[in-house]
Amino acid sequence: MSVESFEQLFEEQEMKQLSVGDVVEGTVINVKEEEIVLSIDGYKADAVISRSEFTNRPNVDLTSEVEVGQKLEAKVIKMNDGEGQVALSCKRLLAEKGSKKIEEAFNNKEVLTAKVSQVREGGLTAVVDETEVFIPASLVSDMYEKDLSKYNGQDIQFIITEYTPNSNPRKRRIIGNRKTLLVAEKEKKQKELFEKIKVGDTVEGTVKNVTNFGAFIDLGGIDGLLHISEMSWGRVDNPHNLFKEGDKVNCRIKDINDKKIALSLKFEESNPWIKAAENYAVGNIVKGKVARMTDFGAFIELEPGIDALLHVSQISLDRIEKPSDVLKIGQEIEAKVTDFNGESKKISLSIKAMLADAKKAEETTNEEAETETETAYSDEEVTGEEEA
Question: Is the pLDDT score of 172 beyond 70?
C-alpha cells in the first residue's frame, strides 16, 4: 500500500470516528453574521453552525456573539451539509442539557433562574439553556398583574411544577411557578415581622396601594391598612390627596388581628383635644372654617380634628331659614363658645351671642357717653350760676 493510500485510509478512518449525535469541541476559525465556521481537532473537514442552530433568538448577529479562536461545544446533526462540511448545533446540545437540568430541578424541587424571552397573552416564556419554560400569568406573582411587560428581558426565579418530557419540543410540557416562591418568602418575612412588632409600636412602611377607603402600607413582608379615618385627626375626603405609591410613612400599629394589621397616623401626643378645654373654654371668642352644613346648622372646623356646631338659630340676630343662606363652605367665621363637653367631644358656638355681647357693649358705651355729656352740661350750668 502506497503512502498516499495509507494517509487517505487514515483520514477516512478519522472521519468515521464522528457520527450524528456526537458531541464535539471545535475552535472558531471564521464568523459571519449568519454562520460560524469551526475546526475540529483531528478531523479533516470544517464544521459549521448556522444562526438557527446557534440560538432560538431571532436575527442575532453571530459576529457579536462569538469571536475567532473561541472554543465551542456542539452536537453533530449532519455529517455533510451538502458542501462537504459537518453541520453542528449549539442550541440542540444546550436544549438537551437544559432539559436534563429542568428534569433534575423538577425532581429535586430546585429553584431555577432564567431570563424572560417572551411576554405572551397567557403568561411568560423563560429560557433555560435553550429550553423554554412557560409560566402562566396566574403563577407569575402572588397578586393579580394585568400587565406582564415589565418582566420582559428580566431574570426571574421559579420552580418547575409540571414536567412532561417529549422528543418533540412542540409536545413537551414544562410549567414554571414563581408564585410559590413569592408566597413562601412572604410567609417567612411575615413570621419574622410578627415576632418583632406589637400594638403601639411606630413602624416605617412604603405606600403600596391607595384606595378610596384607605392606603395599604408595605411593612416589609406584610401589608397594613391605614384606614381613611386614621389618616388624620381632621377630616380626610380623599386618601389620594395625601398619599401616592412609593411614599414612606411612619405609622403607629393600632391593632393586630391574626395576620391583619391596622395602622394609624393619629398619634396621641398630637391629639388636639388634649388642650381643647383650655383653647375652647366657654366664653372664648374663636375662629374657624365652615367645613359642612346641614339644615339645622353648620359644622365649623376650629383645627384639624376639632369641629364645633353652629346651630342655625345662633348664626345671626335675625331669623335664618338655613345656614346656606348666609354661609359658604370654606368661609372663615368668628364666634363665641357657648358650650364645651370634653367627654363627648362636643362644642357649641354662637355668632348671635357674640353679636349680642358686642351690641350690649356698644349700648353700654353709648349710655356712658350720654351720662358723661349730661354731667358736663350740668357742670357748665352750675358754673354759670356761680359766676352770675
Answer: yes
- In terms of Cα–Cα distance, which of 283, 343, 356 is closest to 315? 356
pLDDT higher than threshold 60 for residue 3: no
User: Quick one: 316 and 242 in the same domain?
Assistant: no
- Grid coordinates given for 259: 395576620
For 161, the 3-state DSSP assignment is strand
Cα(141)–Cα(356) distance, integer angstroms: 68
- Better-scored residue on pLDDT, 267 or 7: 267
Asked whether residue 43 is assigned to any structural domain, the reply reads: yes
Spatial separation of the C-alpha atoms in residues 61 and 79, rounded to whole Å: 25
The pLDDT of residue 375 is 60
pLDDT tens digits for 354-370? 998 888 877 777 666 66
Instruction: Determine the structural domain holding residue 66 and report its residue range.
Output: 3-93
Q: Which of 303, 273, 297 is nearest to 352 (CA)?
A: 297
CA-based nearest residue to 274, from 240, 305, 242, 231: 305
Cα distances (Å, whole numbers) of residue 40 to 6, 23, 25, 50: 21, 11, 7, 16
Cell numbers 358686642 correspond to what residue?
Answer: 358
* CB of 276 closer than 8 Å to CB of 288: no
Same domain, 72 and 142: no
Residue 279: count of CB within 10 angstroms of its CB = 16
User: Would you state the pLDDT for residue 162?
Assistant: 92
Q: How many CB atoms lie within 10 A of CB 373?
A: 10
Q: DSSP secondary-structure letter at 324?
A: G
Q: State residue 244's pLDDT score.
A: 92
Helix or strand (DSSP H, E) at 378: helix 351-387
